[in-house]
Design brief:
alpha/beta; 7-stranded mixed sheet; 29 strands; globular
Amino acid sequence: MSHPVTRQLHKFGGSSLADPECYLRVAEILREYSSENDLVVVSAAGKTTNCLIEWLELLDKDGRQAHEALQSLRSFQQGLIESLLDGEVADELLTQLHLELGVLSGMAEKPQSEAEQAKVLGHGEQWSARLLAALLTKQQLPAANLDSRRFLRAERAAQPEVDRALSWPLLKEQLAQYSQQRVVITGFMAQNGAGETVLLGRNGSDYSATVIGALADVDRVTIWSDVAGVYSADPRKVADACLLPLLRLDEASELARLAAPVLHSRTLQPVAQSAIDLTLRCSHQPEQGSTRVERVLASGRGAKIITSLDEVCLIELSVTRAHDFAPIATDIERFLQRTQLQPLASSFEPDKGRVQLAYTAEVVNSVLAQLQDSGIAAELRLREGFSLVAAVGAGVVNNAVHCYGFYQQLKGQALEFIAESESGLSLVAVLRKADTDSLIQGIHQNLFQAQKRIGLVLCGKGNIGSRWLELFETEKATLEKRHGMSFTLIGVVDSRRHWIDFDGIDVSRAQHAFDDESVEYSGDQWLSVLAHNTYDDVIVLDVTASSELAARYPQVAESGLHLISANKVAGSASGEAYHQVIDAFAKSSRFWLYNATVGAGLPVNHTVRDLRESGDEIIALSGIFSGTLSWLFQQYDGSVPFSQLVELAWQQGLTEPDPRHDLDGSDVMRKLVILARESGLSLEPEQVKVETLVPDSLASLGVDDFFEQSVELDELLHERLRKAQKEEKVLRYVARLDRHGKAVVGIEALSREHALANLLPCDNIFAIESRWYRDNPLVIRGPGAGRDVTAGALLSDINRLAAML
């Protein structure tokens, strides 16, 4: 039985195909983000359609200028082909291009019908689809190009609608001809019953992308453009606008209704009427993030987006005193509903006998003409020269703070009227020509930039702490943009001294200026200082291995601070002490995150927690939990003494500052206890049988003396290795918690083929056995040691905590 092909659709606009570099970038995006059966919809490259419009206009005015415009277009398209392709493929596309441009040149002799003009304007999409398909094929991503007029059916209208019933079987027939290759389809165009080209109008390529996506039953449509998605305001006008990772479909529709450039209501219609997901993403910087339009209709809490529009017109309808206002107002509303001519905003004023309807300059004349023919008993007047600003978001009209802030910012403006949308999704102000750029900046600042200020305090500035400082310095701007919050380093603390400055510490100075700026403290004095902070939230990062600091975790919570730990002590303390910490954070409504305690940057704790919260039950855990011991035993084959490998690992920063904390098994034991507790299993540290690699004679020495006498390690392990090699096995340091509650940490001799024997150096592997993963355990594997991945895990927890705040 054959399974249906699962597909996604990717749409690229003209700015994503503006030059050869853009085409190459799109090819890389499709290599990384698409599969072989995916569909791709393209617009005309760069300003090609505008050039074709200009050429058509010049035909009637100036033949010489028209010829120059066509030559400029020829040069641009030819340059794209010659930059990206060579050989026969390039020759074939150049020949087609010149033939088609020759046909266009011949059209200069006679006037063009609307259908002929539409056909001319569709050439840009054809050229894009051909070129991209050829480029993908050249790069070992087999692709074919397909003219959308072969299957999309629509009749000519002001806003043509695709006839899905006619189009669906035709598309199915076309796609059946292509398997195991991407299909690059022209956007913007359909064909009518007479076989003529029909252009799908403004945002026609985006609309055709979602229509084709719905017809082809794709899982997701991704619209790639020059912006990463929907922001809280236009990022070109509001510098601190932040990207919205999720947007409700009704909010997206409201934004589109208000003529925001990033979305169009027609684009969203097929999304609303099908099961496809819609994602908006930036083709210039794919890693920048995205906006996913989702169907949830949970209650909203207020404004999410501030938008503006210039070139707004008002249609004013005046009802004379001789007529009753109420029935005429009802007639107007019914007419607008019936003709689907909903205004951007409207104002009904019975005391003045006046109705005002706001429209874009693009459609206002058409609406005015239809109202004049409607027979409604009112005088009509067109008024021009208005602007619009709006706050959009589910629940905005019920959010007293947002409403007040919106009205406050409009004080002193030449305000015509303010309207609440019927849906309750927007507050719209119509003004006589205003400086909307500064106005939306002020509204955005007032509504959103009572921006949460987050203070960060780093405890431990050693190996991992110093790397985290470097990472935070490079990622700070991205972090702030992603969450719409400010993040400021306000403290660095070590075991004896603290440097706390509520004005902020320059991250680049945090290390080298610490000795000069810090003061000595005792006990929990640094927590007392932090209690007087002026921030909305403060997050303490514990990257130490300090038992003393771990003992103060309840005080951290009681001081109103959040905590992110790489320190394993509290998570693996006695059950009583562990639950004291959990309770302290719960009572103070603060958060304690500690993904970095197990597996460094690997999402182990997250996964186990998600399984439990999804209704699964963890039964057993096993694996190699120490990146340090993983590296040591991968290297240990007898050619280099074990003691020398330990010193090498220490020099490379792969061990704790005192490597005995790795070698004695306590680190692995702690991880097993933490993971067991996260799994909902009850495990006390003393219940874990631990095999230490540190002889008693080395246990109480200083670190330098330990290294001087570490040859004793070799005597302990050499015989174990020799015996394992004799049996053709390898040594690994393994943690196990079985389904009967037996917990063991120690050296095992494993066959060379065993899953735990074949890891990359430093890799951890975690096997999670649960009710759902009983026969085939869930395995998480990857680098489990090193300053980079641990610092990354801390940043990941900051992101997670910011989202929770």
